[in-house]
Design brief:
Elements (H helix, E strand, L loop, with lengths): L5 H16 L3 H8 L4 H10 L5 H7 L2 H10 L2 H8 L4 H9 L3 H8 L4 H10 L2 H11 L6 H4 L6 E3 L4 H11 L8 E5 L5 E6 H6 L17 E2 L4 H11 L3 E5 L5 E6 H19 L12 H28 L1 H6 L7 H25 L1 H5 L1 H31 L2 H31 L9 H22 L7
Parallel strand pairs: 1-2, 4-5
Antiparallel strand pairs: 2-3, 5-6
Protein name: Magnesium transporter MgtE
Membrane topology: Multi-pass membrane protein
Subcellular location: Cell membrane; Membrane
Length: 455
């Protein structure tokens, strides 16, 4: 069944809930197993806890495995405590190895060992292998459920192999060709197998130009490779080119979401605090280092203003424009930062180069500064009856925005050259730096021209 629309899903869910309430097992199974897996997960999440035991009773462990895989980690931790140990072990035996490894990596080691000991040895060994790789690597991300064939196989034998091994595989759209030592030598698509004569050999159908990744490759690089080559899966090999697993596109989507969240955390100086499931205390703990650091930067800003105290005392009206200068500088710098971090992440920076990118951002800053300066030179004399004040504020903003775009563009590049994630050049950090420079420019010009300002 295709995924239902909202109204149809609610009605369908009501029928399933009613069958559970009336303890009509056959009706429940008939209705529930027709649902799309996503809807099955959603329905399970909507169940009251007192109804879950009946749910576990009606569904086999293999049927519930699909649902368990669709839950987030916190829900999985809660559900596993409700399951009978033998039922849970059987469920894990029917799950994909990479999904099991993801879950076991999030729970305490003794509990993880108990689960592995209860599983079939072959299944457990595959999970243990995945857990042995570094976090966020291709090896940790890959699944062991893939189809491999020999170059000497003919289409007929491959089709027969697919019928037997296909149901357990993560994907069958790519068939990987290995030699007698399990080294990757080629790849053939399911489409090529289907349309070829039954007597044709794999050697004549396969491509020897295989895009693969080494097991210790960072998961972000794997995601980029799959995206760039429009793959549904990428084979994972050892340093000696032995095929040990595959990374599928659904796992890559999770990686991209995870990496985007991490970048957003860094960009907003709230690393690890964007998860709505953590407590207020944990969120405050994660945010506080950046906030304290930025607080000290704020003291520098205050110090800059203090250095020009005499100028402010003499021309008090200058204080009116401090927020304007600071906000404009910070906003412009953050925009340039976002553009640069994005171009670094997508690879467009490498294609265009540093000079081109900085020239574009500097040009943008010049035009933004010019537009803002012209507007201020029209508005300020009307509000404060001073053309000199309008000139000081306008030229200060023009210079500030021009420099702010350069800072926003250059800082993430420098951080990248230092082999760090450019997203750590957070918006608040860039904003504070540009605030300080903007105030220095503003008060320096105002001090130089103070004799021409009305008191």
């Amino acid at each position: 069944m295709n995924r239902l629309n909202e109204e149809a899903r609610e009605k369908y869910f009501d029928q399933i809930f009613q069958s559970l309430k009336n303890k009509e097992k056959d009706t429940f199974l008939e209705l529930f197993l027709e649902l799309h897996p996503t809807d099955q997960v959603e329905l399970f999440e909507a169940l009251y806890k007192d109804k879950r035991p009946m749910f576990y009773e009606y569904l086999s462990a293999s049927e519930f495995a699909e649902i368990f895989q669709g839950l987030d980690v916190d829900e999985q931790k809660e559900v596993i405590l409700e399951l009978d140990k033998s039922y849970a072990a059987e469920m894990f035996n029917h799950m994909q190895s990479d999904d099991i490894a993801d879950f076991l990596g999030e729970i305490n080691e003794p509990h993880a060992k108990d689960i592995l000991n209860a599983m079939d040895k072959e299944e457990a060994d595959e999970v243990i292998e995945l857990l042995s790789y570094p976090e966020e690597s291709a090896g940790a991300l890959m699944t062991k459920e893939f189809i491999s064939i020999k170059a000497t196989d003919n289409v007929s034998s491959v089709m027969e192999h697919l019928r037997k091994a296909g149901p357990e595989a993560e994907t069958v759209y790519y068939l990987y060709v290995v030699d007698n030592k399990d080294k990757l030598v080629g790849v053939v698509s399911l489409r090529d197998i289907i349309v070829a004569p039954l007597t044709e050999t794999v050697e004549n159908l396969m491509s020897t130009q295989v895009v693969s990744v080494e097991a210790h490759t960072d998961q972000e690089e794997v995601a980029e490779l799959i995206k760039d080559y429009d793959l549904l899966a990428a084979p994972v090999v050892t340093t000696t080119n032995e095929l040990i697993g595959i990374v599928t596109v659904d796992d890559v989507m999770d990686v991209l979401e995870e990496e985007t969240t991490e970048d957003f955390d860094d960009f907003t100086a709230a690393k690890g605090a964007t998860d709505v499931n953590i407590s207020s205390f944990s969120a405050a703990k994660k945010r506080s280092p950046w906030i304290i650091m930025l607080m000290f930067f704020g003291l520098i800003t205050a110090g800059v203003i203090g250095q020009f105290e005499e100028t402010l005392e003499e021309i008090v009206i200058l204080a009116v424009f401090i927020p304007l200068i600071m906000d404009s500088a910070g906003n412009t710098g953050t925009q340039s930062l976002a553009v640069m971090v994005r171009s670094l992440a997508t690879g467009s920076f490498e294609r265009k180069g540093l000079v081109h990118t900085i020239k574009r951002e500097f040009g943008t800053g010049l035009m933004l500064g010019l537009i803002c300066a012209i507007v201020l030179m029209i508005v300020v004399p009307f509000l404060y009856q001073s053309y000199m004040l309008a000139f000081i504020v306008g030229i200060s903003l023009f210079l500030t925005l021009s420099i702010a775009t350069i800072i926003g563009a250059v800082v993430p590049v420098i951080i990248t050259k230092l082999k760090l994630d450019p997203a750590i050049a957070s918006g608040p950090f860039i904003t504070t730096v540009n605030d300080i420079l903007g105030l220095l420019i503003y008060f320096s010009i105002a001090t130089a021209l103070i004799d021409y300002l009305p008191t």
